[in-house]
Design a protein that fits this description.
It is built from ten helices and eight strands. It has 250 residues and is an alpha/beta fold. α7 runs parallel beside α8.
Length: 250
Amino acid sequence: MKKIIICNWKLNGNKKFIKKYIKILKKNNKLYNNYIICISPPIIYMDYTSKLIKNTNILLTSQNVDIHLKGSFTGEISAKMLKNINTKYIIIGHSERRLYHKENNNILLKKIIITKKLNITPIICIGENINDYNLKNSKKICKKQLKYFIKKKGIKILKNIIIAYEPIWSIGTGKNASIKHINKINKYIKKYINNKYKNINKKFKIIYGGSVNKNNAKEILKQKNIDGLLIGKSSLNIKEFLKIIKNINT
Ligand code: PGA
């Protein structure tokens, strides 16, 4: 199974930046043959990016989706529209959306359902805050976040999805979680889901996000229980991102 690397650009970039970035990425395509590389630009540049990556092995990811497919929902974007421009993955439940946009589990579940309905893969973000980390509640919090979806829709809701374990305290802080901690949580989540759904193992991935950079990416990615990386800040600089790719290949 190829490991996946997602570049989450958040609210950054413009056409000039994207054009240059994709050009350099395409030129270096031999470096990432063994990985699935995804770009997640701001919604307004999704279509532009989609055209630039056509006929390449770079895949398009959305940072968000609405809970409706169409209608009077000013400012929103639907899974159908995203599908229309060849979106392969949608990030759901990023801590920034949970915090700044008050997206609760009920809203997130609707987003997961609508994403799966359109045959797009949801990337469901989970993770504890610093208080819970200090209180050693990480496992409990991650389980609780997943349990809500399982309780409402059954374990099948997690089939063919990606779970991104992103401890909130490590996002954008320069402090990645230790390998030991990530392994512990990822292993626990895998076991938790596998116990409920035999054979699901090959049907979902669990990745890590939170201050991944050129110095720690290789070590994190080579762990058995880590199927990929979700990279924010370090994916914004193409030179830095290429260093990450080069490092994980060595
Ligand atoms: P970061 O962001 O790599 O800047 O910590 C990760 C994320 O928010 O997905």
